[in-house]
Design brief:
about 240 residues, alpha+beta, Ubiquitin-like (UB roll), Fumarate Reductase Iron-sulfur Protein, Chain B, domain 2, five-stranded mixed β-sheet, two-stranded antiparallel ribbon
C-alpha cells in the first residue's frame, strides 16, 4: 500500500426509487489510499453513512475483478471512467489527482430503468439472450472434444467476441442507447462456431427484433460503444451483424 493519501469529493446521483425525484449530493472523502478502487471508496463512504444513520449509496457489484459485468456507472460523463479497457471496479484512485471532484451517475437509457442511486435494471440484456443468444443442443452424453474441428483463427475471433461481459457501458455511451455492440458480439461468437450454424439466421432475426422491442435505439455509427467497452470489443462486429441481416 502507498504511504500517500488522496482527498476526493464524490458528487453522486441520489434517488430513492424510480418514482422519486433525484439530485446530486456531494461527499468529501479523506484520507484515502490511492491504491483503493473507486468501488472501495464507495464502501468507505457507505460505512460513514451507516454510522451516521443515513441510507448508503446503492450501486451494483459482484466479483470486483472486471469479469462479471455487474458494476457500471458514469464517472465524469464517461462510462466506467477515464481509464481505457477498465471496468469501474478496476478503476483505482491513483488515476485521479488530489482534490478532484468525481461526478457519479447511473446509466441513462430507456431500456435500463433506474432502480436506486447508481443502480439500474439491466434485465433487458437477459431477455435479449433468452430470445436467441444461445445454441440449442440435444441432451445426452457430451460429444468428444475433437468431434467438431474449429480453426485457430476462427476460435480466436469467436473468443474475442465472447469476451463481452454485458456491463451495459456500450448502451450508456451511445447517443441512441443502442445495444448493437452487445447483440453483435453475441451473434458473432455463436455464428463463427460450427455449433451455431444451424440457427444462425433465426438467431439474428430474433435478437435484433428483441433489441427493438426492449426499447434500445439504433446504431448511430459514432463508435462510442467500442471506445468505452472494458473488453475493447470492436465495432466491426456491428458491421458483420448488419451484413448478415
Amino acid at each position: 500500500m502507498s504511504n500517500t493519501t488522496i482527498r476526493l469529493t464524490l458528487r453522486i446521483w441520489r434517488q430513492e426509487g424510480p418514482q422519486q425525484a433525484g439530485a446530486f449530493v456531494s461527499y468529501a472523502l479523506e484520507p484515502l489510499s490511492p491504491d483503493l478502487s473507486l468501488l472501495e471508496a464507495l464502501d468507505c463512504l457507505n460505512e460513514t453513512l451507516l454510522m451516521a444513520g443515513e441510507r448508503p449509496v446503492c450501486f451494483d457489484h459482484d466479483c470486483r475483478e472486471g469479469i462479471c459485468g455487474a458494476c457500471g456507472f458514469m464517472v465524469n460523463g464517461q462510462a466506467h471512467g477515464p481509464q481505457r479497457a477498465t471496468s469501474v471496479c478496476q478503476l483505482y484512485l491513483r488515476h485521479f489527482r488530489d482534490g478532484d471532484t468525481l461526478t457519479l451517475e447511473p446509466w441513462r437509457a430507456r431500456a435500463f430503468p433506474l432502480q436506486q442511486d447508481l443502480s439500474v435494471d439491466r434485465s433487458a440484456f437477459d431477455r435479449l439472450l433468452a430470445a436467441g443468444g444461445y445454441v440449442s443442443v440435444n441432451t445426452g452424453s457430451a460429444p468428444a472434444a475433437n468431434a467438431l474441428l474449429v480453426g485457430r483463427e476462427q476460435a480466436e475471433q469467436a473468443f474475442a467476441a465472447a469476451s463481452c461481459i454485458g456491463c451495459g457501458a456500450c448502451v450508456a455511451a451511445c447517443p441512441n442507447a443502442s445495444a448493437s455492440l452487445f447483440v453483435a458480439a453475441k451473434l458473432g461468437h455463436l455464428s463463427l462456431l460450427p455449433q451455431g450454424q444451424p440457427e444462425r439466421q433465426r438467431r439474428s432475426a430474433a435478437l435484433q427484433g428483441a433489441m427493438v422491442a426492449e426499447g434500445f435505439g439504433s446504431c448511430s455509427n459514432q463508435l462510442e460503444c467500442s471506445a468505452v467497452c472494458p473488453k475493447e470489443i470492436s465495432a466491426d462486429w456491428i458491421s458483420r451483424m448488419n451484413r448478415s441481416g
